[in-house]
Amino acid sequence: MPISSLKGTCIYRYVSIVAMAALFHPGVSLAGGNEVNFSLTDNPARWFDTGTTIAGTRSLAVAKPGVRVNFSGNSNTVHTRTSVIYPTGAAGMPFNTPPRKSGDSVTLKTPGLYVFTCSIHPYMLGAVIVDDPNTSGLDLGNSISLINGITVPSSSDLATRLLHTFFVATNPANWQNYASNTPWHITYPNVDVRVDIGVVNLPTVLNARYGNDRALEPLQNPVMPAVGEVWVATQFETASGKSKPGTVTAVSGATWQVTRKVALPSINMNNAHNMWTDRNQNVIYATQWFDSKLAVYDRQTGALIRNVSVGEAPAHVMTRTDTDELHITNNGDTRTDSVMELAPLATGVERRIDIGRGNAHAHWMSHDGKKMVTPNVLTGDTTEYSFGSNSVESILPASTPFGHPLATGMMPDASKYYVANMLDNTMTVVNMNTHAVIKTINLIANYNPVTGAITGPVGALPIQTPVSPDGKNMVTANMLSGTITVIDTRPGVPTSDAVVAMLPCDPGCHGVQYGAKQGGGYYAYVASKFSNRLLVVDPDPNGDGNPSDAVIAGKVGLFASAGTQRDATITGNPGMGGQGVLPVPVIYNGWVQNLPAAWKSQLTAAQQNPAQ
């Protein structure tokens, strides 16, 4: 029964809303308490945990105006407490803290919807609805504002799309499970909410706009095999013998079957996020994003080699092509020397590199080992660093102050690079020779955030965005829109640095990397957080260099089968949490030339020298 039907007199309204608040969170009770407690954890979907479940989520609370919201740390790494969404004009907003493990609190006075996140791990979500007991329906406010300045009516498509994403992200039962034959069902709280157009039933609106009980399309292997294998950070999968989530999953490019699961229970591997490999493709380096360590294991056996302390919230790892040294971004470190340099095979930390900023995420290294570029998440800018002079060559604005630059991609000749700005929904293009921003690509130019109308390719909340090894296209995973966008990166063509294609993706679309297709060309592999399948994109199916005809060439499950080798029993969220992707062999310009002969012989001449 909708909540509004229970409300009558002013006194009864007050009692009913406090009772509903108690249902959402025990800290809000009829005794008069008005407090919400969030524990920040490493656990999938319970990153902001109230301890009480409502409609499948433990990350939502309802309270009266004046509620005190407390955040306590129960995680192995640091987090921010950031009000990513709040009622427009709300007192004390936006609220934002530096990354830390200690507790914080904020008082919410203005009725409406407040959504909190961690700017280091931006899919961590917790929400509080501050409700005026003298109104019918739970108050969402007349309009909502995002921390980067975007403001829309609370009934708009953007507002309800964000609500839809919240309920998918914070309830594992709402994730797309391709290991099951049942339709995809999303559970929403059956409540009436007050928005700018009046009182509406929340699930009725969300179901009408985004559908429900949809049959999931069958998995389908690509027709053309791939060279080698694909490793995916299935970050939310849980396994026996460990208290922290996260495995790394290997998929054969020949059979498209899951061949191995690596959970590393001996070190309690925690939220493995992104991977790279050494020059000989023998070991895999996996960052533990909700921790402070880098796991190193044998690619062929899955056996642990070492577990190296590197710093808070290590996010991405890559090697230098000339030295095979590792470079790791400590995403939770606010110090300017937040990039770690490790000896080959990660045998030890050699130094900290000062990039002029902290909190870098998905960096990229140049083909000749001379340059590194970083997106600096909390400062809205990007750094270009020279290993030749061991100095910062430029720090350029990439987004608005809260635009959240998250990932980079670089042309194979290091002539320019791209920065994906998640909250600004833009791509910044930087000339590496002149150190100047030469273009900003608006990924939501074809989207009306109020009506939801889409008139062309759209990419909302872009995340990973590598450039193809031959420099002809760039594939971007977009979290909010559930789309894959393809940008034409060829210089000198009319569509250069323009979005030329859009493909469907799963909820939480996140990770992308390119691998070699047998016989020539490339696949781009796309992983999603709230799904357990890997999408295989052919960005140039007819081989003419123009990516406007890009297609989904395959849909591959990431869950184990009877033949999957593993070091632990999978206990939950099978194949879920797809984030970082590592195709082996690494075939980007600079790395591919260093491959052992056994790997190089499987590539075409064009794949062996992609920049020619």
Structure explained in plain terms:
The chain is mostly beta strands and 612 residues long. It folds into 2 domains: 3-174 and 179-210, Cupredoxins -  blue copper proteins (Immunoglobulin-like, Sandwich), CATH 2.60.40; 229-608, YVTN repeat-like/Quinoprotein amine dehydrogenase (Methylamine Dehydrogenase, Chain H, 7 Propeller), CATH 2.130.10.10. It has a 6-stranded mixed beta sheet with strand order 3-8-7-5-10-11. It has a 5-stranded mixed beta sheet with strand order 41-17-16-14-43, with no helix packed on it. Strands 2-1-4-6 form a 4-stranded mixed beta sheet, with no helix packed on it. A hairpin with a 2-residue loop joins strand 12 (192-195) and strand 13. The longest helix is centred in the first third of the chain and has 15 residues, at 10-24. The radius of gyration is 23 Å and the shape is globular. The chain starts with 9 loop residues before the first helix and ends with a helix.
Provide a concise account of the structure shown.
By secondary structure, the protein is mostly beta strands.
